[in-house]
Amino acid sequence: MPNYIVPVFIDWSLYPSFTPAELACRDSGLLQFHPGFLASLQSLRDAFGRPMVPTSGCRSRAYNDRPRAQGGVGGHPRSLHVADDPVHADKGQLGCLAVDIRTPDAAWRGDLFACAWRMGWSVGWGRGFLHLDRRDFIGLAKTSFDY
């Protein structure tokens, strides 16, 4: 388990549905979120009314860019998961703006998609997960996409 890197104090009592361990970078332990992201994530969880299990939250640039075969995630070069070297720093991105949530089946995935979309989240859907991000926090247009 990595040591957690927390550049700014996070009062986890405000986000009772999530833990640092499930949102930290799996490689470096980095925990750095754009202002308002965790509050928005907790609001989504409260509105959804069901547990949400993150499979990916914060990522370091190194972990995001490293291929899967070499122990990374092989993520998109403009990933909103990246917290320590955000590609949208010019737009004011100060940390992670994305989380991937495990989806047990299609109906559950559809319910979470609808709830997140109504609440302003951008949504990407893949086999077994939904990518949720708040690109709108930095002036990017809300969107949906598939993997």
Automatic annotation (TrEMBL):
Boundaries of every Peptidase M15A C-terminal domain copy: 17-106
InterPro entries from the UniProt entry: Peptidase_M15A_C, Zn_M74/Hedgehog-like
One Pfam assignment: Peptidase_M15_3
Signal peptide segment: none
Protein name, per record: Peptidase M15A C-terminal domain-containing protein
Organism: Oceanibaculum indicum P24
Lineage summary: Bacteria, Pseudomonadati, Pseudomonadota, Alphaproteobacteria, Rhodospirillales
